[in-house]
Amino acid sequence: QSSKFWGADSDSSEEVSDDFSDSSADSSSSSSDSEESFQGASKYLQDDSSDSSEDDRRVIQSAKERRHTELKATVSNVLNHLSSNDWPELVKSFEKLIKHIDKHYAMPEQVSNSVKRALMQVSETVDSAYADKEHRQNLSTSFSKALSALRQRVAKYMKTVSLDTNLTLSSGGDSETDDSTCDSIAKKSEVEVDKKDKNYLLYADKKDVTYEMIDEKLQDITASRGKKSTDRHEVVRHLLYVRTLAKCPAQEVEILLHIISAQFDMSNSMASCMSVATWRNCVVNVLRLLTLLKGNSHIALIEQGEPAVRVDKDTILNGGHVELAGSLCAFVERLDDEYNKSLQNIDPHTQEYMSRLQDECFLLILIDEVIGYYKDLQNAESQVKISLRLLSHIHCKTVLLYEAMRRFAFERLDTKHNHKQVIIDATQEPQISNMDSYYAADGFCFPKGKLHEVVSHLTERVYTIGDQRSKVRAILYDTFHKSVCGDYDTAREQLLMSHLQQSINHMDVDTQVLFNRCMAQIGLNAFQDGAFGTSKACLSDLLASGKARELLAQGISPGRHSVERNLEQEKLERRRQMPFHTHVNVDLLESVFLVSSILTDTHDLFIKNRQPRTSNRSFVRFIEGFERQTFNGPPEGLRDTLMCATKHLIEGNWMAASDYITNMDCWSMLPTSEERRDYVLKLIVSELKREALRTYVFQRAAYYESLCLNTLSAMFGMSVDAIQTTIHKLLAAGLAGSCDPPTTSFAVHLTEPTALHLAVTIFSEKLTVFLDANERSLGVHVETEASPQHDDEESYMKQRSARQSRDDEREDVSKLRNMRFPNVSHSTATCMNVGGDSRKGSNKRYPFTGRSL
Amino acid sequence: MATDVGELASKLDAHLVLPLLEFAASRGTHAKADVDAARVEILKKTHMCDYLADVSGVSVDAATREEVLKTHETLRAAASKAAEFASDGAAIKAMRRDKGENAKIAEASHGITSADVEALYTFAKFEYECGEYASASEHLGAVQLLSADSARCESALWGKFSADILLQNWAAALDDMNRLRDALETNASSSAYVKMKQRAWLLHYALYVFFNHPNGRNSIVDVMFQERYMQAVQQESPHLLQYLAVAIVANRKRRNMIKDLVKIIQSDSYRDPALEFILALFVDYDFKKATEKLKQCDDMIEKDFFLIGTKEAFDENARAYFIENYCRVNKRIDIGALASTLEMSASAVEASIVTLIRQNKLNARIDAEAGVAHVRVETKSINEQIIEKTKALLSKTNALTQAVLANTQAQAF
User: Fold this and answer.
1) 3-state class of B367 per DSSP?
2) Complex prediction ipTM
3) Which of A740, A812, A819 lies closest to B330 in CB terms?
4) Is residue A487, in this structure, part of any structural domain at all?
5) By the 8 A CB rule, do A168 and A175 touch?
6) Exposed, middle or buried, B65 (CB in 10 Å: 0-12/13-18/19+)?
7) How far is Cα of residue B270 from the mean position of the Cα atoms in its chain?
8) CB distance B379–A751 less than 8 Å?
9) C-alpha B100, offset from chain centre
10) CA distances from B384 to A349, A742, B127, B378, B381 (A)
């Protein structure tokens, strides 16, 4: 047995010894200069080395050359070992080759074709040897070890350089000549050679390029996607060229899909945005893709799941049915995202921003066309998605702005059509210009119809086919748009009808932001309409928190809030920001809110027998803060000015107050016509007089036995009738007093409450609040606790839902009755917490939830 | 009012518009020629040849008339079996609410199939179009009982409703209206939007009932203040608000609804004299404007087909409200001056002030010699105010305790 064992081993031992001797020889040779070990192999080299020994200068001159020969020698060495299946040796020489390539070439792909071919050969032989099990079993341990090590090494290496190897093999004939020329013109600069080599497809005569060649190139590029070493810009440039070679629409579509993806790949993180040029180019590409898809109904894009197996070349060339993986919807959405991102990143006060804004009309055109495409496909989901994108762009435009944009787009398209000019001029690639001519020829045009029509058309479509969230967004866009266009009544009605106030805090942050924007816009509208109370109600929650900027996604308020946020949240916040040109002016909002508060709430401060009304706490806080200051200089800034005005108003000096208010420069930002603005200012002044009168009555009237209406009329610059009406209203609202028509006078019967009285009043009020809170928490408690313990769950649910619907009804009716808006503001109180502290808010509201029982 | 007839007519059956037009003609608010032209237009849509001939003065050619009669005959023949059944009062009474059961009974005892019912429906519709409202109403009632198809029942109900209105059978019409309301609510197949439209239509039809049925002025308030119907009014036909306003003012029992009405008016941009009167009187306390609007209201009511019946009640109550609010804010009231602004006699004003005093709504004494009422203003002392405020707290707390106990007990079991 042992002999057999030895006998069996003897063969391998021979081999091993063989191997040893070989390796020792090799190691000795390799330890000496590699050039020497191959002196016989290359005459050229021999000359070179002899040259080098003779003349140093020449050696320095031909360093590149020498490197080349060195490489060549290594390659031939590798090939030698390969042909003799000498695995351990091969491992060494292969390593050497790789080292050499790594050392002298920045990109492994830049090596000459002969080297590549050698690499391919190594890889193939090693693979086949490894695959041949019998052969492997017969090998000695060291050999088989070497083989498997080699296989791994080769596979690993080939992965990194796989780009062009396929191509080299497939076009063997070409590369042969290439190779020979490469060898013969070794003196030429390496870079040039490499370029020629690598782009060989790109330089080949157009007629010679076959369908397969392009296909393979595409596959290479797909394989290289996402690798660190690939130059993304290079890939795009190649693809753009390859596109011009495309053999049939289907192939062009495929290449376009690759180009667009590659262009999206060019920016390497979520934070950074695409360059403007790339973006424009990408739009053109997507448009071209769209044209192709529309013109060739046999090409289908599969957006979800795997496309069917590729059909063979002939069917494709003959226009058979082709399925490709890709999604126009995703492309458009990505383009839109990138556009917004770039707007976020550009300083809005620069020319750059303006020129970027011009691009919006191309985006609109693109989106509109894509909607049409999906409409034809009857793909509801994508249609809704894209419609919302379009809405997000146009909802904040006024008719004027929109028409200007349309004109701009027409002009651009027109000039292009006539002169075949480059429409999107910032693209450096020469290929783009002929793309553009397609683009113009296909007659893409701006969304047809008036702005209202476009918006209503889009929203209606979303209402009919969209899901819940899309519908909500569409309603909000529509509302915002109506309110921007000044259709205040409809906007308000629509928001109320949608009942969104109740559910908005369960929506995503973006929708909440949109809702807040709607509220802000409607508040502005109400102000312009002279509905100061409504305006105040709309805006109070937005501004009272001091986080208006965050709530509207318009930047970050200075102050303590910014400290609390961690890095991640801040990033999110920044990504959420609205582009500058869509902003609602926060300063304007604040002045509108404060002026509305002044006009409606100043007299509240002086109502005896109770605390100042809690509904407008922020206003009260501002005034208190202002009064606390020891020295009030001339007003600076918006809030200061308005507080100054309030102070004058309280003193009865309505003229000074109206001067302060009407001279504020923020009114020029009111988005209305000149006349309307004057009208609003007039309204403000007359309302200011009335408020001054009210404040006066509450403050001073108690000190008079009777007040003469004529005197009051002189004091406040109002007609006697107007004063009478105002006072009647106060009386009807519960002010103790009466008018005396025969003497046109008026008296208030007030007794000054003592401190005890006041204290008791406040206490009783607090008790009421307390009781209400208890009641509410009980209601909540019953609802949540009882449900799981109920035996007959279903009947209970029925009962409950019935009760709820009844409650809803009641609530609805009460909303109808309660002038409608206070309710809106009430529910927004909870929903405004975009920052995430809604929990805190609700806890505050029901302090005893979960503990009281 | 010219627009109003049009607005109303847009949501009324052709037959129902005719009384409106006749009224308009009789009041002389519109040129007779216009009204007649409108009537002819409407009559052309119906089969009422004789009436058409009457109005237009042109005799309809005999062929058309003949044809109508012929169709009538054929339809009658087709529906004879069912019609017989429908006129059998005892059989109808034997019917129950359950529809499936009804159809079976009818089939078993009288051999009436669903095809017969269908024929009866077609016949009744034709009858209605010919102006034979009485028999149409009877037949449609039977259809409504027998038909198993809910859509058919609904349209039969609409037909019966308008037939009863045209017959001025208000009790039946009110009954129809309530059934129709139920039918609309329970119809699961129509969308919310369609339902809203239908409610608006229903309210228009119902105006006839509201202002003619003795209890109608109560039911208009009840129906319209339902959230669903109010929505329909606000969205579809805000011009109905004036009918509501007049009905509320004219109906003393509903004075507590005025507050709610005010809120609705304020939230809506629609305005007309009646609504403006209410705003001026109850919101702005602008008595000058209120008098002005009151006059306009009187004018408007004069010319309105529906409201004319409420004129007296409205006049009386509107003035009473006026006096009440006037007294509330003024302490010395010159009765003569007030009477002249309201175009009432001084004694009538005095009488209504006395009524207010008697009802404890006003603490005042009348100085008959000077013709002045002195209102005594009394302010509640702060103590009283506080007591009033805290009074409710105890009962509320008790109720809360009860609720808590009930809840814990329920949990214990």
Assistant:
1) strand
2) 0.74
3) A740
4) yes
5) yes
6) middle
7) 19
8) yes
9) 33
10) 64, 32, 69, 12, 5
Q: What is the pTM of this model?
A: 0.67
Domain assignment present for residue A530? The answer is yes
Asked whether the beta carbons of B43 and B51 are under 8 A apart, the reply is: yes
What the block records as the tokens of A30 is 């390799």
Assess whether A697 and A593 both reside in one domain. Answer: yes
**Residues 204 to 233 of B: which have CB under 8 A from any A CB?**
225, 227, 230
Cα angle value A623/A629/A634 (rounded, 5°): 85
Q: Measured between CB atoms, does B188 come within 8 Å of chain A?
A: no
Are A819 and B267 within 8 A, CB to CB?
yes
Into how many domains does chain A fold?
Answer: 5
Between positions 776 and 835 of A, the ones with CB within 8 A of B are 778, 781-782, 785-786, 789, 809, 812-813, 816-820
CB pairs under 8 A between A and B: 115
Indicate which of A498, A728, A748 best probes the interface with B, i.e. most B CBs within 10 Å of its own CB: A728
Cα B389–Cα B393–Cα B397 angle in degrees, nearest 5? 175
> Residue A365 domain-assigned?
yes
Q: Helix H segments across A635-719?
A: 637-650, 654-662, 674-700, 709-716
Q: Which of A87-101, A269-283, A444-458, B224-238 has the highest mean pLDDT?
A: B224-238
Architecture field, domain B332-375: Orthogonal Bundle (1.10)
- As given in the structure block, the two tokens for residue B303 are 């010319």
Domain ends where: A701, A733, A761?
A701
Contacts of B389 in chain A (CB under 8 A): 761, 764-765, 768
Sign, CA dihedral A125-A127-A133-A137, equals positive
A182 within some domain: no
Interface of A with B in 389-418 (CB under 8 A): none
A646 shares its domain with A548: no
Is the Cβ–Cβ distance between A335 and A363 less than 8 Å? yes
Can you tell me which residue has the tokens 């709504």? B361
Q: Are residues A443 and A502 in the same domain?
A: no
Token pair for residue A635?
A: 């007003």
CA distance A722 to B344: 26
Report the candidate in A615, A202, A628, A252 with the shortest Cα–Cα distance to residue A435.
A252
Taking the domains of chain B in order of start, what are their residue ranges? 332-375
| Residues A235 and A214 both lie in one domain | yes
The kind and range of the H/E element at A300 are strand A299-302
Residues A716-774 pLDDT 10s: 888 888 888 888 888 887 777 888 877 888 888 766 777 888 888 888 888 888 888 88
Task: Give yes or no for residue B92 having a pLDDT over 70.
Answer: no
pLDDT of residue A615: 62
CA–CA gap between residue A101 and residue A114 (Å, rounded) = 13
CA distances (Å), origin A56, targets A47, A48, A64:
13, 11, 14
Q: How far apart are CA A586 and CA A591, in angstroms?
A: 9
Residue A608 one-letter amino acid? K
Give residues with Cβ within 8 angstroms of A640, minimum separation 6: A626
Handedness of CA B370, B373, B376, B377 (dihedral sign): negative
**Structure confidence at residue B91 as a pLDDT band (50, 70, 90):** low
Residues 292-331 of B with CB under 8 A from A: 325, 328-331
Structure confidence at residue A807 (pLDDT):
39
Q: What does A796-844 look like in DSSP terms, one character per residue?
A: HHHHHHHHHHHHHHHHHHHHHHTTSHHHHHHHHHHHT-TTS-HHHHHHH
Residue A247 phi/psi, 5-degree rounding, is -85, -30
Range of the domain at A649: 587-701
Instruction: Calculate how close chain A gets to B334, using CA atoms only, in Å.
Output: 8
Residue with tokens 């005594």: B376
Structure confidence at residue B324 as a pLDDT band (50, 70, 90):
confident
